[in-house]
Amino acid sequence: MDFMTILSDSLQQALGPTAVVYCLAAIGLNVHFGYTGLLNFGQAGFMMIAGYSLASAVTVFTTSLWFGVIVGLILTVILALLLGVPTLRLRADYLAIVTIAAAEIIRQTISAAKFSDTFGGQDGVTDFISGFRAANPYTEPLDLGIVEWSAYDTWVMTVGWAMVAVSCLVVWLLMRSPWGRVLKSIREDEDAVRSLGKNVYAYKMQSLIIGGVFGALAGFTVALRSAAVGPSFFATDVTFFAYTVLLIGGAARVLGPVAGSIIFWFLITGLGTFFSQATRGENPLIPPEIMDSQQASLMRFIFLGLGLMLLMIFRPQGIFGDRRELALDAR
Amino acid sequence: MLISGHTPRSRFAAVGALAFVLFLLLVPTASAQASSAAPASTGQGCQYEDDEETISIKGCLRDLRETPPEPVPGVQVTVLDDAGAVVGEDETDETGAFDVPIPGDPASALGKTFTVQIDESTLPEGAGLRDPDQVELSIRFTTTSDQAVSFPIGDPLAGSAGKLTQALQLTVGGLVFSSLLAMAALGLSMIFGTTGLTNFAHGELITFGAIMAFAFDRLPGEVTIGGANITVIVGVLFAFALSAAFGWLNDAALWHPLRRRGTGVIAMMIVSIGLSIFLRSIYQYFAGAQSRNYSQYSAVTPWEFGPLLVTPKEVVVFLLAMSALFGTTALLQYTRIGKATRAVADNPALSSATGINVERVISIVWIGGAALAGLAGALLGLTQGFDYQIGFKLLLLVFAAVVLGGLGTIWGAIVGAFIIGLFTELTTLFVPAEFKFVGALLVLILVLLVRPQGLLGRAQRVG
Question: Looking at residue A92, which CATH number applies to its domain?
Fold first, then answer.
């Protein structure tokens, strides 16, 4: 058992590009769920639209990544409008089912063999990242002693954490404005807000769009991190993981998603490396009859599921949240 | 629904609106796609040696003009990959079987599309394909198991009749699938109706049934009655019973304590997501990631009804599913406990005040709902094999069925399941099979636009 490797792997993931992706996705969900009380289970759909826009801007339309960013943002706004029209008048559980269905529609359509000439089917799209690579100012890997990132990862992290910082600032400013206070009161009591003459539907729609745009930033980061996009990067579980990230840190807290993402990836990677080491080698810690290396890779998901349940039961406000702010119920 | 608040007229309007939506969906696509022949679900009686290491495309050529259908040997079959390169060739043997292995690792074929071509000039004198245009078929590997294709040989069918036959054939498959979907949907809807919980772990109840039936099937020994081997059928019933116990355990160990704590329904919904991830990983831990089949009924000769091919397996599955559905609805409609269940679904506080033991009713609903879901899973595993994700993949269609019919209603869940089930199968007439789920989910969203409470749901504020 090599605890230094476990620590170094965990730290690398906890601060690395993947944590940035889930942090941005969770910031979007924080706007939806934490502040407005909208149960959006289709965040993966927003991410996918954005990721594929970035990729196909280069591969299909042979323009720049900047063009892809703009198209991706426009498309996510359109998606939010399309989703919002039929769902925002519905109760929370209906909204959850419809958003999850919409994300799956997007995923199955984009990954269909019929469009494989454009979107690569199950293989996805690659070879679009050269412009971003060329702009990389780092030439050396970033070495902090116990943990090291490649020059490219460092570049993605720099851009990614900068986006996180800006996003957190935007959320902070929005939520302390009168507009943000209306959102929070919609979460607390929609009818009361309506009786004050506010257009609840419009506020919910704006919240859905803004949260979706943060989801789009997460989708861009996925494309940059992997230098590829594929349907498996945007499966339903991605949304669920993002919810776990949000709930660990604490919903309705500006920095909740940041803390949640770092802690989530630290624990998940630590568990993964621990069980992979415990089942590897000549004389493994856990005998192969009980657990082989394939099964070891599943242990972290077993713990993740269990953790999400226990978290929601015993500490729904997460680490930094306020319990009174999460007394949510379907209305 | 205990007390129906709206008139039959508004219900007709709802059905009419749905029919209109379906019509709108189908019309633009009808002309776009010519027939895409569906891969056959069985090997139609051919014997193949099963090889775990490689996957292959196999099939069986039968001359359907003879009764029983006669094997057609000596026909050249070629398999091409998506780039058009030849992957392998085979000639049908004296049983009419061919088997073209796909080179390389089974996982590498996942998601790839292969084209199977048949050389018409090698067909015997006088024999031709039933559908003369169908000299090639496309096959996509979505699991790492062998894929079977069929090229029905016989008198050519007239073009329109071919389409009609195809539609009928798809209806048969759609009815079988719908009956399974209805069982799963009924369980979900009953649980929602009585507890308000949108259970995202319902798919895992389905998978549980499939795995338990498989575990029983794998036990050494066989169960026979009068010489007939009924191991798998007994396995399905075994799964049904164990699922009921699993449902009770779910409620007693998790949901009942949560209700006592006063946990809100959204918190419970997120707990159910955690439970879903947890159980799915546990299943994969013990059952592995590969797709599995039960020992019996994987390859059987279909019965012919005119141009229709129906396998005995489909009949058994459909009859079992329908009797479970009728049994459950009769229980709900006529027995005391059934009436109590509907009363709790309608208004828990009021039924509690009238002396109904609400917690006992909820416990029974969990037992019944999980048993139905488990039975659906076991029978689904019987029809198409299963892997650890079978329930999770089905979950969205179950949700679609329940929401379409009206969340929490009993008849709504069944009606919704049959609409979604038949829709998914019949749309393959017009659009590629890979879009059939997409179509069903689009119907869900469109119906919610027109009629948010679902087809049979009571008109009330749902937002």
Answer: 1.10.3470
Report whether A214 contacts A67 (CB < 8 A): no
Q: Which residue has the tokens 């109706």?
A: B193
Which neighbouring-strand residues pair with B113?
A: B140
Domain ranges for chain B, please list them: 55-156, 168-450
The span from the first CA to the last CA of chain A, in angstroms, equals 50
pLDDT in tens, B242-266: 999 999 999 999 999 999 988 888 8
Rg over alpha carbons for chain B, rounded to the nearest Å, is 24
Cα–Cα distance list, B305 to B67, B127, B168, B175, B308 (Å):
12, 21, 11, 16, 5
* Rounded mean pLDDT, B391-401: 93
- Domain contains A82: yes
CA distance B362 to chain A (A): 20
Asked if B155 contacts B65 with a C-beta cutoff of 8 angstroms, the reply is yes
Q: Could you say which residues from 277 to 336 on chain B have a Cβ atom under 8 Å away from some Cβ of chain A?
A: 277-282, 284-285, 288
Give chain A's domain count: 1
- Give the type of residue at B389: Q
Counted residue by residue, chain B has a size of 463
pTM score, two decimals? 0.79
Q: How far is A93 from chain B (nearest CA, A)?
A: 7
Residue B3 has pLDDT above 90, yes or no: no
pLDDT in tens, A276-325: 888 887 778 888 778 888 888 899 999 999 999 999 888 888 888 877 77
Of A102, A243, A302, the CB nearest to B281: A302
Instruction: Count the Cβ atoms, other than its own, within 10 Å of residue B279.
Output: 23
CA distance B155 to B171: 23
**B155 Cβ partners below 8 Å, 6+ apart?**
B65, B128, B130
Could you tell me the strand order of the sheet in which B86-91 lies? Answer: B86-91, B76-80, B113-118, B136-140
A331 occurs within a structural domain: no
Distance between CA A260 and CA A245 in Å, rounded? 5
What is the architecture, at CATH level 2, of domain B168-450? Answer: Orthogonal Bundle (1.10)
pLDDT tens per residue, range A235-281: 999 999 999 999 999 888 999 999 999 999 999 999 999 998 888 87
Convert the pLDDT of each residue in B24-38 to its tens digit: 444 333 333 333 333
**Tokens of residue A313, six digits:** 């039961």
Task: Give the number of other Cβ atoms within 10 Å of residue B10's Cβ.
Answer: 11
A298 vs B266: CB contact, 8 Å cut-off? no
Closest C-alpha among B115, B52, B59, B114 to residue B91: B59
Q: Is B55-156 CATH 2.60.40.10? A: yes
Alpha carbon distance A231, A213 (integer Å): 20
B436 interface with A at CB cutoff 8 Å: no
The CA distances from residue A321 to A215, A243, B4, in Å, are 21, 14, 43
Closest CA to A157 of A127, A136, A171, A172: A136
Residue A156 tokens, joined: 């993605």
Cα of A330 to nearest chain B Cα, Å: 6
Residues pairing with B90 in the sheet: B77
Rounded distance, CA A84 to CA A206, Å?
A: 10
A203 touches chain B (CB under 8 A): no
Tell whether A165 is covered by a domain: yes
**Pick from B436, B421, B397: nearest CA to B25:** B436
Return the structure tokens found at A282: 């000549």
For the beta carbon of residue B163, count every other beta carbon within 10 angstroms: 15
Domain that holds residue A251: 3-326
Rounded CA gap, A213 and A236, in Å? 18
What phi, psi does A94 have (nearest 5°)? -65, -45
